[in-house]
């Protein structure tokens, strides 16, 4: 009887475990679920061991197989303008300068992005003005450089609009040059990705879902840092102050 009960309990547990994987708001409700407007975003973190068998939904554009640390944030915010105006926030690369995050290591608010500038192309570091929503809608890859307060030197990123409409946006950022701390390569090209899903819920209420993939051994054990970095960008793009609010991870 005990063996039968144990088998039943184990069998019932498998669906719950299998369900505990990231779920962007593609064709079903997101996991984690959206927080209500005005509240801190809900957050969930998965480490590499939990993602070995995870197959990312097709809407992510990501390949299957294991990944490193994965952070998901989900919440809602108010925006009375158009989707194009929201898209413009993501193209305003220079506006990233000075955003803050809570440093779990230093226990204080720090500037996260010290400089950011749009590039003229994939093979050019020539500076140009911010990207307009109209050129982003072409869905071609756009490039920019970013410096932060922890890494050494400028890191080049690729920005691409994966999907766009009057009531939804899907955008991806990916590092195309290495992220280094002094002489140590922390992330090789393509190992740091941000994927944003924005969908209008009703009227001026929008849902936002952010996936941050940090596919490097250096991300292990630094969950709080990556949560707070993701929150900084989340707050920036939703129009909230990036510093001074209660940190999600200490």
Question: Could you characterize the architecture of this molecule?
Answer:
- This protein is of the alpha+beta class.
- It has one domain: 2-Layer Sandwich (Alpha-D-Glucose-1,6-Bisphosphate, Chain A, domain 4), CATH 3.30.530.
- Helix content is 18%, strand content 36%.
- The protein contains 4 helices and 13 strands.
- The strands form 3 sheets. Strands 1-2-13-12-9-8-7-5-6 form a 9-stranded antiparallel sheet, covered by helices on one side. It has a two-stranded antiparallel sheet with strand order 3-4.
- A hairpin with a 2-residue loop joins strand 10 and strand 11.
- It is globular.
- It starts with a helix and ends in a 13-residue tail after the last helix.
Beta-strand level of the residues, as a percent range? 35-45%
Give me the strand/helix succession: HEEHEEEEHEEEEEEEH
Distance between the termini: 46 Å
- What would the CATH topology be? Alpha-D-Glucose-1,6-Bisphosphate, Chain A, domain 4
Using the alpha-carbon principal axes, give the shape: globular
The value of Rg in angstroms is 19 Å
Total helices: the number is 4
Give a count of the beta strands, DSSP E runs of length 2 or more: 13
Structure described in brief:
The protein has 250 residues and is of the alpha+beta class. The chain has helices at 2-19, 83-91, 133-136, 223-237; strands at 42-46, 69-78, 100-103, 108-111, 113-121, 124-128, 142-148, 155-165, 168-175, 179-181, 184-187, 192-202, 205-214. Helix content is 18%, strand content 36%.
Outline the fold blueprint:
Elements: H1 2-19, E1 42-46, E2 69-78, H2 83-91, E3 100-103, E4 108-111, E5 113-121, E6 124-128, H3 133-136, E7 142-148, E8 155-165, E9 168-175, E10 179-181, E11 184-187, E12 192-202, E13 205-214, H4 223-237
Antiparallel strand pairs: 1-2, 2-13, 3-4, 5-6, 5-7, 7-8, 8-9, 9-12, 10-11, 12-13
């Amino acid at each position: 009887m005990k063996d039968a009960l144990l088998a039943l309990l184990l069998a019932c547990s498998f669906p719950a475990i299998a369900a505990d994987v990231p779920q962007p708001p593609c064709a079903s409700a997101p996991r984690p679920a959206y927080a209500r407007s005005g509240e801190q975003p809900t957050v969930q973190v998965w480490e590499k061991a939990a993602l070995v068998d995870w197959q990312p939904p097709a809407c992510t554009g990501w390949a299957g197989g294991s990944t490193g640390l994965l952070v998901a944030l989900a919440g809602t915010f108010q925006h009375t303008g158009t989707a194009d105006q929201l898209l413009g926030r993501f193209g305003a690369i220079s506006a990233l300068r000075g955003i803050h995050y809570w440093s779990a290591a230093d226990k204080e608010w720090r500037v996260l992005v010290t400089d950011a500038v749009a590039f003229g192309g994939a093979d050019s570091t020539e500076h140009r003005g911010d990207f307009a929503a109209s050129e982003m809608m072409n869905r071609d890859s756009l490039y920019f450089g970013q410096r932060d307060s922890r890494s050494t030197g400028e890191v080049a990123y690729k920005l691409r609009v994966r999907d766009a409409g009057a009531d939804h946006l899907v955008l991806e950022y990916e590092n195309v040059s290495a992220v280094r701390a002094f002489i140590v390569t922390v992330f090789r090209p393509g190992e740091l990705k941000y994927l944003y899903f924005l969908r209008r819920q009703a009227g001026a209420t929008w849902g936002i879902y952010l996936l941050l993939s940090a596919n490097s051994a250096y991300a292990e054990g630094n969950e709080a840092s990556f949560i707070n970095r993701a929150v900084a960008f989340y707050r920036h793009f939703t129009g909230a102050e990036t510093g001074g609010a209660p940190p999600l991870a200490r």
